[in-house]
């Protein structure tokens, strides 16, 4: 059985076909923000592949899709999966790899006429990116009961839509129960999205957990005025507050040291004109760390600096938490299963935490969970240039196959 392996050409063909939907011209990347028309077309394609593989497909009330392959015994399935939504300037591997590698595991077993002991499930969860509808990992959060379905439906997007309205519009408001059925175990294959594996010349990461994530939206309100006539001492300039805070969180992350990271990724100013002191600035702060105490310190110091800076600039502030997830530690048995499956293929798996958020961190709330990482060239992700070589994709999907088979016999 150890020589059972996936078909890399078939996996790459599926990745390419899915990447054609929402393709960003002149790049290898895609724009399939959650619950857009492009997301719907991507969903339809993946569901059609699930049906071709005779999976039993369920769509739940937040649009999560789960396809189940029967095992030789009844009981909770070993689940794999990820997401097929992307950021607006996304790559073709982030999320998509985990879902399509799951289908590849199923097809490999079907082709070999093998029935796993436990059922196997392949899932794609809604709005993992959170780029259109915060928080990230929304679908998997609701799947595990971390948020009620009504609360999820009411979430407003960056474009004045709601999750419930868009699910209904694209036809993915399904009847499946929420919270969803608890899997026996969950394992997700994903590109690393960072530089570590490549730098160390390794192919497989055995992921030990996911760092804590804190997203805040800040709105600073000042007074719109003439850029030429308003003396510097009389201004109420929200742009200045935004720029100072952006600079502060960057310096704070350097001071706290790795793995602390800090990003201001979105900023909107009104009225956004060259000769007008802005009336308001709305921006986001993304802070992450593997240690919750350090993350709490970063949040506190950022909030203090924001308040003091707004006061000094005669502006007022409103803040809104968009996402806050504590660091997650994965299950030792699944981490060991990843290491064993890598070793069987002559690979050394490196234990490492994940810097990005993943659906696996939500599934870890309800069942033994782990992840497999494969290298990202130059550590680039959330960028159309994201790339992982076919050899590394193949190695990762084979590790996924053998981890799932091992977990399906326990
Ligand atoms: C979501 O995938 C994130 O890590 O931002
Ligand atoms: Mn992802
Ligand atoms: Mn992503």
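Sequence proposed for the structure above (410 residues):
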């Amino acid at each position: 059985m150890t020589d059972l392996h996936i078909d890399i050409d078939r996996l790459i063909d599926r990745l390419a076909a899915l990447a054609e939907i929402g393709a960003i011209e002149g790049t290898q990347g895609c724009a399939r923000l959650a619950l857009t028309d492009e997301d719907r077309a991507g969903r339809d394609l993946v569901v059609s592949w699930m049906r071709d593989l005779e999976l039993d497909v369920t769509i739940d009330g937040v649009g999560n899709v789960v396809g189940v392959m029967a095992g030789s015994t009844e009981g909770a399935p070993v689940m794999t999966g990820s997401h097929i939504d992307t950021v607006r300037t996304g790559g073709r591997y982030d999320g998509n790899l985990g879902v399509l590698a799951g289908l590849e595991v199923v097809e490999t077993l079907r082709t070999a006429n093998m029935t796993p002991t436990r059922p196997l499930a392949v899932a794609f969860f809604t709005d993992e990116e959170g780029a259109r509808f915060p928080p990230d990992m929304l679908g998997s959060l609701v799947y595990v009961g971390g948020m009620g379905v009504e609360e999820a439906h009411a979430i407003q997007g960056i474009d004045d839509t709601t999750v419930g309205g868009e699910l209904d519009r694209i036809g993915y408001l399904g009847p499946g129960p929420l919270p969803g059925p608890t899997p026996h175990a969950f394992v997700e294959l994903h590109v690393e999205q960072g530089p570590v594996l490549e730098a160390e010349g390794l192919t497989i990461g055995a992921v030990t957990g996911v760092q804590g994530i804190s997203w805040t939206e800040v709105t600073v309100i000042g007074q719109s005025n003439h850029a030429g006539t308003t003396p510097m001492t009389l201004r109420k300039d929200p742009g200045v507050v935004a720029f100072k805070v952006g600079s502060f969180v960057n310096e704070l992350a350097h001071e706290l040291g790795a793995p602390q990271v800090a990003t201001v990724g979105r900023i909107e100013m009104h009225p956004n004109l060259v000769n007008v002191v802005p009336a308001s600035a709305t921006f986001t702060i993304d802070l992450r760390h593997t240690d919750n105490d350090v993350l709490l310190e970063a949040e506190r110091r950022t909030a203090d600096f924001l308040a003091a800076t707004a006061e000094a600039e005669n502006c007022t502030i409103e803040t809104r938490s968009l996402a806050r997830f504590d660091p997650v530690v994965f299950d030792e048995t699944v981490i060991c299963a990843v290491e064993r499956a890598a070793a069987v293929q002559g690979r050394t798996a490196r234990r490492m935490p994940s810097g990005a958020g993943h659906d696996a961190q939500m599934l870890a709330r309800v069942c033994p969970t782990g992840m497999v990482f494969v290298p990202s060239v130059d550590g680039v992700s959330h960028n159309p240039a994201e790339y992982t070589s076919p050899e590394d994709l193949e190695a990762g999907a084979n590790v996924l196959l053998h981890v799932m088979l091992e977990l399906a016999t326990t």
